[in-house]
Specification:
single chain; Arc Repressor Mutant, subunit A; D-Maltodextrin-Binding Protein, domain 2; 5-stranded mixed β-sheet; alpha/beta
């Protein structure tokens, strides 16, 4: 491999007409270029460049060697460009684990657009809130919401969303309007991931235990049950946007709701990640950067 050292520098000098110009082209020092070319000449046992105080020119052997090396360098550059293009023509299977209405309504459409950009790529999305084994399940990354406990994983913040308490007009007409989070204890609440709801009460984060006769870990099902008057729901605001516009649901307890509930992109801490996963993660981070 040592015999290849200096070839790029020599070709750059031959094409630019000097060591300084070649160094600028290669983004390195002039002394490095001069040293590499001198070592190349020593290994070949032949003078390639005729040096004077005013100019540098190719010797007869240098001209012959330049013509041969030029083809090699050009071929290598073309190979690198073709490889880069092939890398971005993603293939294989991207496996994503996701959960919640946000993932269904926003992450999935975003990945559909990513799939259009890479038609040779297969994408599998598993909508499941369970803890996944990234190795055994072959998951490239997961979309998760809330607090994360596994320190062995890398978590990158995707978005922060405000929480919102809602109920249907029919429910409020029947059971009344709660004016404080503690009053939720006597209401029917639709439970999603847990039955302890966090609120800002008197400047501190406090938990209120709620009960109800409807439970689901699917955000769309929770929203539908809430619209049907089965109880009060508490989830990220974006889950209820359309329902509120259509006056199917009414916001409650706004001043008490937690702000900035976070959704994360989570993946295994490993040295090498498939290009398809890296690009998909970067795509999602850029897409939701201004959420």
């Amino acid at each position: 491999m040592d015999s290849f050292e200096g070839i790029f520098e020599f070709v750059a000098v031959a094409e630019s007409g000097g060591f300084s110009a070649a160094a600028k082209k290669l983004n390195c020092s002039t002394s490095h270029v001069s040293r590499q070319v001198s070592r190349l000449e020593e290994r070949l046992g032949s003078r390639l460049l005729a040096r004077t105080t005013r100019q540098i020119s190719l010797t007869e052997n240098g001209e012959f060697y330049y013509q041969q090396c030029k083809q090699l360098v050009t071929g290598l550059q073309q190979a690198n460009e073709q490889l880069s293009q092939q890398q971005y023509q993603l293939s294989g299977t991207l496996r994503v684990s996701a959960a919640g209405g946000f993932a269904e309504s926003y992450i999935a459409p975003a990945l559909m657009e990513f799939a259009k950009q890479h038609p040779e790529l297969n994408i599998e999305i598993d909508f499941n809130s369970r803890l996944v084994n990234f190795v055994e399940d072959g998951i490239d990354f997961a979309i998760r919401y809330g607090e994360l406990n596994d320190s062995n994983l890398i978590a990158r913040k995707l978005i922060s969303r405000s929480m919102m308490v809602v109920a249907s007009p029919e429910y409020l007409k029947t059971y009344g309007i709660p004016n404080h989070p503690n009053q939720l204890k006597s209401h029917r609440c639709i439970i999603a991931n847990n039955d302890h709801w966090a609120f800002n009460i008197d400047g501190t984060k406090q938990s209120v235990k709620v009960t109800g006769n409807w439970r689901s870990n699917n955000a769309n099902v929770v929203r539908e049950a809430c619209e049907q008057g089965l109880g009060i729901a508490y989830m990220p605001e974006s889950t209820f946007t359309e329902s509120i516009k259509q006056q199917k649901l009414v916001p409650l307890l706004d001043s008490y709701c937690i702000k900035g509930a976070t959704s994360w992109i989570v993946y295994q801490n490993k040295q090498f990640m498939p290009l398809r996963a890296r690009l998909a993660i970067d795509f999602l981070l850029e897409r939701f950067a201004k959420w």
